[in-house]
Amino acid sequence: MRRRTVLAFGTASLMAGRASAADWPDRPVHVVVPYAPGGPLDLVARLISEKLGARFGQSFVVENKPGANGAIGVQSVMASPPDGYTLLLHGSAGVTIYQAVMKQPAFDTLRDLTPISLVIYFDLILCANPALPFRTVKEFVAYAKANPGKLSYGTAGVGAMNHVGTEWFKGIAGIDIVHVPYRGDAPVAADLAAGVLGVAFVSSNVAIPLIKAGKLRALAAPSRRRIAVLPDMPTMAEAGYPDFDLQPWTALFGPAGLDKTIVASLEEALKQVFAEPDVIDRLAGLSMTPAATTPEELTRIVEKSIALWKGVAAKAKIVVE
Which among 261, 251, 266, 259 is positioned nearest to 115, based on CA atoms? Predict the structure, then answer.
């Protein structure tokens, strides 16, 4: 009798889970952004949430939960039920580099989260102070080799993508340039234009106005294709470094164990959203490109990135307490 009761309870619970997944969403969905309002990730989250809300007929509400290099927001999603009502929009540095550089990471991306889809790619640009005597990546590398330890590069902070990425490039190119950490790309760009720094990988939305004003010199884009608004600027592959791909991305995740039906619904909805002309235009205005994928593709991207950054961090001895 007790065994039949347990089996009946288990079957009822399973059926309830299936029913709730089939009915999802029947109340507002919360999209956690582990950064403060107003930044690029927040703007993307609000655009995507608006469009998903219209498609599903329910509100998708952005919740900003900054702190601890993004870990506070991630942990809040980890602690949520895997019912599709709490999602996470996070950047590539936060879900891949974080694990590689943190001495004691607060989460494991693929263990504690369910990958759903990439959302956008955005671009970095290798920039130099215009007063320096090089105009190409080849000339920059030659100059750095002839002047070891004399050039400085700025980043958005220790463990940021442009920090770990520059250390990766240093190893590939065999150069010695000095790291100067900042808090964000805007002060990096300002000091680069002022001549305090020599070079930096700067977010395209920050760099492009300064490049067009002649305050920064664009050397190359470490991305898969040229940037449309700077058509004459080569990619790093075209500049002689085909294996150097430093293109940040943003992706959507859920808590571990998120129902596959909900994952599939979100994946399909994002593909439809990114086909909308106004979404493409709005993202282009932010120097971003839609990048929907399958969950399996996102999983492989995360795995490959974590392995890469762990190797770079170990070689460069980058550890964040």
Answer: 251
